[in-house]
């Protein structure tokens, strides 16, 4: 006949996940958060538009919905054919002014020599100098205008104002656009879970409160559950709902607008928490052994950090033994 000793039972308890403490456990009610399951939607903290800066024809559109872009990346190019023609016309006028400037410099030198000999008056010399100064100013003005046209041509590039993901592309290549027209909507590279909770929850939630976030696919299983924290609560209640944002790591690969199950606290309540090793199962029924050798049938609830919530079957002061 096999003799079962206490050390052997203790080793079995440890092997099967039971509480390693051999002493009996005294039941005491504890206050816990009353968790409620709600749904949150993945949203970007900021959204911005990539817009055109000049009018023209949209070309070289290199983006599509879902693409990741970096700040300053060229998304498309707006081409205005009139800018090229204006640039050519200004270049021709500038060459003409250069020729007139050369002639005015030659006339000024000759007039200066004649003025030294007394052949021309001081007034004539001043007129030649003024003519040369006027031509220089006209050349400077044309050069500035040419630089302006060149800069306007550079502004044809539609740049990403921030790094993020393309949510919507509103134009196609070949479209005629005007200045300030929307080309793409970009979600900045910071995502949150946006909760829209019933108004009665407003008094229970606070900034920095912890929450539990489920895995993708709206699953209610504990697999893939991650921790989050409320980062912001909006002061305006819309349609009877309070809006809050939750910071959760690893939302960058989610779809914007994707729904995720979230467990939040809706107040406090009293309950019993028992280590999992104290709960036995027989014929599909959960039971707990008492110190006096008796057994009580219990109804188990959610698991909380290695403990199991007991909804019914226990009371304060009960002393439990390992099953």
The helical percent reads 10-25%
Which fold name fills CATH's third level, the topology of the largest domain?
Elongation Factor Tu (Ef-tu), domain 3
Total of domains:
4
Give the total of beta strands: 21
Instruction: State the shape.
Output: rod-shaped
Largest sheet: 6 strands, antiparallel, barrel
Classified by CATH, the class of the largest domain is Mainly Beta
**Backbone CA Rg:** 40 Å
Strand content: 35-45%
Report the uncertain regions. 1-23
User: What is the CATH homology-level superfamily of the largest domain?
Assistant: Efflux pump adaptor protein, beta barrel domain
**Number of DSSP helical runs:** 3
Second-tier CATH architecture of the largest domain: Beta Barrel
Average predicted local confidence, pLDDT: 82
Distance between the termini: 22 Å
- Class computed from helices, strands and strand pairing: alpha+beta
- Name the helix and strand elements from N-terminus to C-terminus, one letter apiece: HEEEEEEHHEEEEEEEEEEEEEEE
């Amino acid at each position: 006949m096999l003799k079962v000793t206490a050390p052997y039972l203790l080793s079995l308890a440890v092997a099967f996940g039971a509480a390693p403490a051999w002493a009996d456990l005294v039941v005491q009610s504890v206050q816990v958060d009353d968790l409620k399951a709600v749904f949150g939607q993945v949203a970007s903290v900021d959204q911005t538009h990539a817009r055109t800066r000049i009018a023209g024809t949209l070309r070289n559109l290199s983006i599509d919905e879902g693409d990741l872009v970096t700040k300053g990346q060229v998304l498309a190019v707006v081409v205005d054919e009139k800018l090229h023609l204006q640039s050519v016309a200004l270049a021709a006028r500038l060459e003409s002014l250069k020729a007139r400037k050369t002639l005015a410099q030659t006339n000024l030198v000759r007039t200066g020599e004649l003025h030294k000999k007394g052949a021309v008056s001081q007034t004539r010399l001043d007129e030649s100098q003024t003519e040369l100064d006027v031509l220089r100013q006209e050349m400077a003005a044309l050069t500035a205008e040419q630089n302006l046209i060149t800069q306007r041509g550079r502004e044809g590039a539609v740049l990403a104002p921030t790094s993020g993901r393309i949510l919507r592309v509103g134009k196609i290549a070949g479209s005629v656009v005007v200045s300030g027209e929307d080309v793409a909507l970009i979600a900045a590279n910071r995502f949150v879970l946006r909760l829209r909770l019933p108004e009665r929850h407003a008094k229970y939630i606070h900034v920095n409160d912890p929450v539990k976030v489920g895995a993708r696919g709206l699953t209610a299983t504990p697999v893939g559950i991650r921790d989050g924290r409320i980062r912001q609560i909006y002061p305006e209640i819309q349609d009877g709902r309070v809006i809050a944002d939750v910071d959760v790591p690893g939302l960058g690969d989610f779809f914007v607008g994707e729904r995720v199950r979230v467990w939040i606290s809706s107040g406090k309540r009293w309950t019993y928490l028992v280590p999992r090793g104290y709960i036995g199962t027989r014929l599909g029924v959960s039971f707990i052994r008492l110190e006096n050798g008796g057994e009580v049938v219990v109804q188990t609830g959610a698991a909380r950090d290695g403990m199991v919530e007991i909804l019914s079957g226990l009371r304060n002061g009960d002393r439990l033994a390992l099953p």
